[in-house]
Amino acid sequence: MANLLILFFVIMNGFKLGVYGLSMNYYLFSCPFVDSIVKNNLNTALQDDPTLAAGLVRMHFHDCFIEGCDGSVLIDSTKENTAEKDSPANLSLRGYKVIDDIKQELEKQCPGVVSCADILAMAARDAVFFAGGPIYNIPKGRKDGTRSKIEDTFNLPPPFFNASQLIRMFGQHGFSPKDMVALSGNNCV
Ligand SMILES: *[C@@H]1O[C@H](CO)[C@@H](O)[C@H](O)[C@H]1NC(C)=O
Ligand SMILES: *[C@@H]1O[C@H](CO)[C@@H](O)[C@H](O)[C@H]1NC(C)=O
């Protein structure tokens, strides 16, 4: 199970990111304590509500499955645009507040530096570890997207898909059926 988790996070974090521009030490000079700030804030929140761990992995997944891991799931709707967040597919997405709190803390320490997409990716990583999963390192440097449209969420796997349709859909994103089953565990919370 642990290996499986590592595998699909590696794949998931490769989602349309391109390898360019990303690095393990992306914030080394601009925000050296980013990892511990994320982790400490997250751990506090998870101590209050441990079930949020799965919620954050799920949110990261919803973010990545649509146009890559670009933080677009966090964008609020406006008068002119209904964002991904307000799709029926979001229905049970949870953990927005933790991400907002972490972002706020980071803005105090290193204003305008850390992308929300990276915060979500790091929070999901730390949530996996908190929940008893493996620890894994992720490259950082994701840029936040500005596109967040409700219609894009129709690319998420719908609940009425049968197994073969799901396997095909996840396969198109580089996931094996095993990855899919492991990932689906987070979708039940
Ligand atoms: C998710 O979508 C529903 C309806 O589609 C909306 O009412 C709700 O506010 C959204 N949730 C969040 C956290 O934005
Ligand atoms: C799954 O659904 C597709 C499309 O409706 C259908 O062609 C296929 O036979 C179904 N597979 C199974 C195993 O039910």
Automatic annotation (TrEMBL):
InterPro entries: Haem_peroxidase, Haem_peroxidase_sf, Peroxidase_pln, Peroxidases_AS, Secretory_peroxidase
Record-linked CDD domains: secretory_peroxidase (cd00693)
GO molecular function, one term: lactoperoxidase activity
Family matches, as SUPFAM superfamilies: Heme-dependent peroxidases
Cofactor: Ca(2+); heme b
Binding site for substrate: P157
Site (Transition state stabilizer): R58
Positions contributing to Ca(2+) binding: D63, G68, D70, S72, E84
Single Gene Ontology BP annotation: response to oxidative stress
EC number(s) on file: 1.11.1.7
Sorted UniProt keywords: Calcium, Disulfide bond, Heme, Iron, Metal-binding, Oxidoreductase, Peroxidase
Disulfide bonds: C31-C110, C64-C69
Active site: residue positions: H62 (proton acceptor)
Function: Removal of H(2)O(2), oxidation of toxic reductants, biosynthesis and degradation of lignin, suberization, auxin catabolism, response to environmental stresses such as wounding, pathogen attack and oxidative stress. These functions might be dependent on each isozyme/isoform in each plant tissue.
Family: Belongs to the peroxidase family.
Protein name in UniProt: peroxidase
